[in-house]
Design goal:
- The chain is of the alpha/beta class.
- It folds into two domains: about 110 residues, Aspartate Aminotransferase, domain 1 (Alpha-Beta Complex), CATH 3.90.1150; about 260 residues, Type I PLP-dependent aspartate aminotransferase-like (Major domain) (Aspartate Aminotransferase, domain 2), CATH 3.40.640.10.
- It has twelve helices and 15 strands.
- A seven-stranded mixed beta sheet has the order 2-8-7-6-5-3-4, sandwiched between helices. It has a four-stranded antiparallel beta sheet with strand order 11-12-15-14, covered by helices on one side.
- It is globular, with a radius of gyration of 25 Å.
Length: about 450
């Protein structure tokens, strides 16, 4: 970390330059009622050496994914990252690139974003992708704001309870001051029952949002849900797992109008939870409603291939009242990493990765279910993540397994009180047979 101090002489010089007598004078414009009336509880300053030692000690309290065998999921997964991803993304022209406001001076970044968009369109089976959003949670909210700009008169937003609970909370925050009703559809069996959707969907429904595979790891009946959306003229929004598309149908193939997702799994490290990369793609008819930027390919006056910002519906620009979003930037470096990852693994590599996740997850689920008191919570088909219920206390079990060298999963009671005895376990292609067997043995020992 940088250690840059200001001496009293430095502070005085800056205050003199701007023409005020003290730091307190800088805050006179703030009404006294909103000013803190007591001194900040800040510890004494440290020397550079002491501060480095202190920060090192604090950082040492973190337990990284590599410090234990990782079965964590819920939107952030321990997938393998080919070395070529780091090699390309660490090049200075990408690593230090600034937001491409001046397209003519940002050809490298724009080409990278164009390649990213192309790959996301191929991945999702949809016509248009933007040059990324912030992360998976805000992508859900942005998809609804996009739906509002497409069909503003419909007041109802239907979202399955099996969508990531933090994504749903983000949506609630975004729509707090927008006159739309969010209706959460119950998923007691681990996935949205089309019959339940049929009860709620009508001509007032703006959009239906599902996650596939969902937060519990289960697959949704997207074909039936899509048919109901089309029947009632509602937009169908799907939050997808990019790796799963190596095996599952692409959102465009089963009728999704807007596809969104968390792009962490595409060549991006866990970095203690993000934020990562928000993916968004849609049908061509909605291109002028999509938030963020779209990079296009054209030719210059000499007939050479070049790239431009084709659409940039942002609030800083003219006609800002027509902006579809307040997205001011994108996760450009993470989007670049995703593009390099997809180009490196290719369609066959993605299929192999997805198949390894599927097979290993099912193998571990079968092994865990042999343990007395452990069973799968849901009967739904699942991809790389699954939910088990245990007879004991889940937080205690997770603490024991961590001591045994395993990041064992997520306690679902944090978000779903009715699932207080359940945990979600994710298995990626990185997990070896020895690690899976070792986890099952530790689980058996700790659950008793």
């Amino acid at each position: 970390m940088s250690y840059v101090l200001n001496t009293e002489a430095d502070r005085k010089a800056m205050l003199d330059k701007i023409g005020v007598a003290s730091v307190a004078d800088l805050f006179k414009m703030i009404p006294p009622a909103f000013q803190l009336a007591r001194a900040l509880q800040v510890p004494e300053a440290l020397t550079e050496m002491d501060l480095q030692q202190h920060m090192t000690e604090l950082a040492g309290r973190n337990i990284c994914a590599d410090d234990a065998v990782c079965f964590l999921g819920g939107g952030a997964y321990d997938h393998f990252i080919p070395s070529v991803v780091d090699a390309v993304a660490s090049r200075s022209e990408y690593y230090t690139a600034y937001t491409p406001y001046q397209a003519e001076a940002s050809q490298g970044s724009l080409q990278a974003f164009f390649e990213y968009q192309t790959l996301i369109c191929q991945l999702t089976g949809l016509d248009v992708s933007n040059a990324s959003l912030y992360e998976g949670g805000s992508a859900v909210a942005e998809s609804v704001l996009m739906a509002v700009s497409i069909e503003s008169d419909r007041p109802k937003v239907l979202i399955a309870e099996s969508v990531h609970p933090e994504y749903r909370q983000t949506l609630k925050t975004y729509l707090a001051n927008i006159n739309k009703e969010i209706i959460t559809l119950p998923t007691p069996n681990g996935a949205l029952d089309p019959a339940e959707l049929k009860k709620q969907i009508d001509a007032k429904t703006l959009c239906v949002i599902v996650q596939h595979p969902n937060f519990f790891g289960n697959l949704e009946d997207v074909e039936a849900i899509s048919a109901l959306c089309k029947q009632h003229g509602a937009l169908f929004v799907v939050s997808f797992d990019a790796i799963s598309l190596g095996l599952l149908k692409r959102p465009g193939q089963y009728g999704a109008d807007i596809a969104i997702g968390e792009g962490q799994c595409l060549g991006n490290p866990l970095v203690f939870g993000g934020p990562y990369l928000g993916i968004m793609a849609c049908r061509e008819q909605f291109v002028r409603k999509i938030p963020g930027r779209i990079v296009g390919q054209t030719v210059d006056r000499n007939g050479k291939r070049c790239w431009v910002l084709t659409l940039q519906t942002r609030e800083q620009h003219i006609r800002r009242e027509k902006a579809t979003s307040n997205i001011c930037t994108n996760q450009g470096l993470f989007a670049l990493r995703a593009a390099v990852y997809l180009a490196a693994v290719g369609p066959h590599g993605l299929k192999e990765t997805a198949n390894l996740c599927l097979q290993k997850a099912h193998y571990l689920a079968d092994e865990l279910c042999k343990i007395p008191g452990v069973s799968l919570k849901f009967k739904q088909p699942f991809f790389k993540e699954f939910t088990v219920q245990v007879s004991g206390d889940v937080p205690t079990l997770l603490a024991k397994l961590l001591k045994a060298g395993h990041h064992a999963g997520l306690a679902l009671g944090r978000w779903y009180p009715a699932l207080g005895n359940c945990l979600a376990i994710a298995v990626t292609e990185k997990r070896t047979r020895a690690e899976l067997d070792g986890f099952a043995a530790a689980f058996k020992k700790c659950v008793g």
